[in-house]
Structure formats: C-alpha cells, structure tokens
C-alpha cells in the first residue's frame, strides 16, 4: 500500500470521527441535557430498589454503565 493510499484512508477515518462528534452533539445533547440510548426492562434498572420515594438514587449498576460509556 502506498503512502498516498494510507493518507487517504487516514483522512476517511478522521472525517468519520468528525461526523460522529457532530452527530453526538446534534442527536444526544439538547438544551444541555444529554440522553444516552440504553435498554432497560423496568424502573429499577435505573433507580436503586433501596431508594425511598422523593429521595431516589441511581442504581449502582446503572452508574457503572454510564461511567463505562463516558470513559
């Protein structure tokens, strides 16, 4: 593979990264609120079952998932 071909391929990947960044800003952040697509089966996938009404906390497994997605 020639250097020219390698440079062209690298350019394609760079433009895709730019497109991905723009898509993330456009599709997943609205008015400063980020949305992360994920599959949940019930309320307790996100909210800890040990929470008390009006004092809900996030499920630690969900927090771990979010941390993996963001890192």
List the defining traits of the structure above.
71 residues, mainly alpha, 2 domains, two-stranded antiparallel sheet, 2 helices, 2 strands, 6% strand, elongated
Describe the structure.
By secondary structure, the chain is mainly alpha-helical. It has two domains: 1-30; 36-71, no CATH class. Helix content is 52%, strand content 6%. The chain has helices spanning 3-28, 60-70, and strands spanning 29-30, 33-34. Strands 1-2 form a two-stranded antiparallel sheet. Strand 1 (29-30) and strand 2 form a beta hairpin. The model has no long low-confidence stretch (mean pLDDT 75).
Number of strands: 2
The strand order across the widest sheet is: 1-2
Low-confidence stretches: none
Largest sheet: 2 strands, antiparallel
Secondary-structure element order, N to C: HEEH
Which word captures the global form? elongated
SS-derived structural category: mainly alpha
Range of strand content: 5-15%
Radius of gyration: 19 Å
Number of helices: 2
Average per-residue pLDDT, rounded, comes to 75
Topology:
Layout: H1 3-28, E1 29-30, E2 33-34, H2 60-70
Antiparallel strand pairs: 1-2
Brief write-up:
By secondary structure, the chain is mainly alpha-helical. Helix content is 52%, strand content 6%. The mean pLDDT is 75.
